[in-house]
Amino acid sequence: MSEVLMDIQDLAKHFVIDTNFFGKPVSVLKAVDGVSFSINQGEAFGLVGESGCGKTTLGKILVNLYRPTSGKLFFEGKDLTVLNEEQRRAYCKDIQMIFQDPYASLNPKMTVGDIIAEPILINGLLPRNQVEERVIYLLNCVGLARHQRNRYPHEFSGGQRQRVGIARALAVEPKIIVCDEPVSALDVSIQAQVLNLLGDLKEEFGLTYLFIAHGLNVVKHISDRVGVMYLGKLVEVAPKKELYANPLHPYTQALLSAIPVINPEKKMERIILEGDVPSPINPPAGCRFCSRCFKKLEQCKLNEPKLKEVSPGHFVACHLFD
Amino acid sequence: MLLEVKNLTTEFKLKRGIVKAVDDISFTIDKGEILAIVGESGSGKSVTSLSIMGLLQKPGKVTGGQIFYKSQDLSTLSKKELQKLRGNQISMIFQEPMTSLNPVWRIKDQIMESIMLHMKLSKKDALARTIEILETVGIPSAAQRANDYPHQMSGGMRQRVMTAMALACNPELLIADEPTTALDVTIQAQILELLYRMREKFHMAVMLITHDLGVVSEAADRVIVMYCGKIMEEADVRTLFNNPMHPYTIGLLKSIPQIDNDSDERLYMIKGMVPNPLNMPKGCPFSDRCEQSMERCTQEMPQLQDIDGHKVRCFLHDAKEGGSAKQ
């Protein structure tokens, strides 16, 4: 594929939960713990995993809502983690985010037009008298009418609010958009509308997406490549068709088999995982999935498997493939 | 027949007008049957379950119809008699495990409350039963976890506690309102498996309310599709998925990205959105979004037709007009 837009190397974000008397951390939540992958120009990279696996934290690091604890984040070949706050902010324009909850991510006291205009004004992209025209253009792009710019978020339905969130992200002409569960709060019939819109905008503006979701069917629809996360680690990365046809990691296999299929004739052979995701505070040693894995080996409890390429473009972190 | 709902209508009296959240619906559930009710938000599926349980909050009110449980009209029962049924023979799993558990009570006390009330067990026996049921729903080291408060548990655990509470008195009818919506897919698979096991073991009937057609296809025997408070289609699960008749059902099925589909085509979209309940279109409530809408659809309400056990509310399948059953 084409050139790498964003390269993530061993990125980690640890939250200190508790410190001892001397201020030394005694309990650390490792939300993202050494994740590496790259996103190519013009592709949609899907990131799936269950709640608490660190996918949202990762997205927030990319848009500079969190500073990573360690690791590197290259954007167009430039390491963003070494920049100071002011220099880093210059790149925020290029990396935008669409949030999960359209009810919580729009300011209820601002009109939709002001919400969309705000990033344009802050970044000084256009003179004030041209902003309105641009807002109307953006509203049209996301399928809203021009007169709706004077309305407030509560006057919109969930799907429409998500469109406003998309227009706001588009306002600064970003190169990559981090979509954090953009459709999971929406009704089924509205989900399709928003997914199609995201697909159209990608074509139209040549966008790159990091698409974060827990719905594997949604990720499959929109992504070119998919990464699977478990407890702060990336366990498998592969092109979409390869991953869904030939999942290698036991966790990916279980995740795929757990999705209910809309076909009453076809009862899937289910892999039912035992137990819950362990707490990311002091996670198990060795492979993080070993407490729930149905194929675990002796060494899984001792050594942590590394992500390695087992076939072209297909990476997996599992001792079964050593 | 375990439960029979006849012409149930539930209204919410608001300042701006009356909202018919549930509009003249009738259905039955047999012993040991899993009936799924699907619909989008605002379709009235949760209000239906609350109406059956007698848990409607003001300004909601059942304004018409009857609900029979084992041929007994629930509306004729006193509060006390209803209390005896609720939590004992009919129980409910609520949608939000985070908000439906009491945060200042230990898990075991919350579950023991209904056991002691309905099964008349001593405290000791009730605790034993509590631990047994927590084990059944798959909570590891149940005896210790029973002492936890809800905030000490994960979302999946809490949902299992809710399920345990609902199953504690071996109900004959379980109303499960989006029991897996807040959960991850691997936990969802565990909970669905559990409901299945309970059905096999105790011959329990389940009214499963969900918006996830995947869950419906896996779990249900029969399906009701609701839209704007009305039943649009009802059929057994195979018939509904293989031969959906209502344009709304067909649209819903087509608009979901399927995991076993490799094409990258655009998704089918149902245009527009659910109408405002205070400003319903005249005629069929789906007429303003329907691709096959006819003149007549905007004028009069189609009736629910029974075509060999497959019920559908649409003029396209109107037997009297000689309309053909379209694929």
From TrEMBL, chain A:
Q: Which domain of life is it from?
A: Bacteria
Transport as a keyword of this entry, yes or no, is yes
- The family this protein is said to belong to: Belongs to the ABC transporter superfamily.
Q: Which SMART domains match?
A: AAA
- Enumerate the GO terms in the molecular function aspect: ATP binding; ATP hydrolysis activity
Q: Which UniProt keywords apply?
A: ATP-binding, Nucleotide-binding, Transport
- Organism the protein comes from: Desulfosporosinus acididurans
User: Its GO biological process terms?
Assistant: peptide transport; transmembrane transport
User: Boundaries of each ABC transporter domain copy?
Assistant: 6-256
Q: What name does the UniProt record give this protein?
A: Oligopeptide transport ATP-binding protein OppF
Q: Which residues form a coiled coil?
A: none
Q: Which InterPro entries match?
A: AAA+_ATPase, ABC_transp_ATP-bind, ABC_transporter-like_ATP-bd, ABC_transporter-like_CS, Oligopep_ABC_C, P-loop_NTPase
Keyword Transport on this protein?
A: yes
Q: Which PANTHER family match?
A: TRANSPORT ATP-BINDING PROTEIN
UniProtKB/TrEMBL annotation, chain B:
Which top-level group of life is the source organism from?
Answer: Bacteria
The cross-references to NCBIfam families, in alphabetical order and at most eight, read: oligo_HPY (TIGR01727)
For this chain's UniProt record, which GO biological process terms are given?
Answer: peptide transport
ABC transporter domain span: 3-253
Q: Name one Pfam family in it.
A: ABC_tran
Give the location in the cell: Cell membrane
Descriptive protein name: Oligopeptide transport ATP-binding protein OppD
Keywords, ordered alphabetically: ATP-binding, Cell membrane, Membrane, Nucleotide-binding, Transport
A single Gene Ontology CC term: plasma membrane
Query: What InterPro entries does its record include?
Result: AAA+_ATPase, ABC_Ni/Peptide_Import, ABC_transporter-like_ATP-bd, Oligopep_ABC_C, P-loop_NTPase
CDD domains (UniProt xref): ABC_NikE_OppD_transporters
In its UniProt record, a GO molecular function of this protein is: ATP hydrolysis activity
Family from the record: Belongs to the ABC transporter superfamily.
The primary site where this protein sits is membrane
Source organism: Desulfosporosinus acididurans
Entry membrane topology: Peripheral membrane protein
